[in-house]
Design goal:
The chain contains two helices and seven strands; from the N terminus they run βαββαββββ. The longest helix has 14 residues. The chain is flat. The strands form two sheets. A five-stranded antiparallel sheet has the order 2-3-1-4-5, covered by helices on one side. A two-stranded antiparallel sheet has the order 6-7. The protein is α+β, with helices and mostly antiparallel strands and about 100 residues long. α1 runs antiparallel to α2.
Length: about 100
């Protein structure tokens, strides 16, 4: 099983993803591609995400947690490795800007 979630990506990338995967909600794609196709799709995502966009891809695999994931683009959630277990850390929110 493969899941890709996108935010603020161009329509052309969303269209490309819809060729290989089923879009079950806006920006949420699922499917069961081979490893080779998964790697090809991720290459398309990393090339197609623009400055304000971000994406995450998670898939089933034979690990302790049963899945693995990759991210691209700016987001408060960042992956961290904790003794071989992939977890997610949260960056602090942007401080509100003060009026001059």
């Amino acid at each position: 099983m493969l899941v890709i979630v996108t935010e603020n990506v161009p329509p052309r990338l969303r269209g490309r993803l819809a060729v290989w995967l089923l879009e079950i909600r806006a920006g949420v794609y699922v499917g069961n591609p081979s490893k080779r196709l998964r790697e090809f799709i991720w290459a398309q995502v990393t090339e197609g995400v623009e400055a304000d966009g971000n994406a995450v891809m998670a898939w089933s695999t034979n690990t302790e947690s049963g899945y693995d994931f990759l991210t691209v683009g700016k987001n408060r959630r960042i992956p961290v490795d904790f003794d071989g277990l992939r977890l997610v850390s949260f960056l602090p929110p942007d401080a509100p800007k003060k009026a001059p």
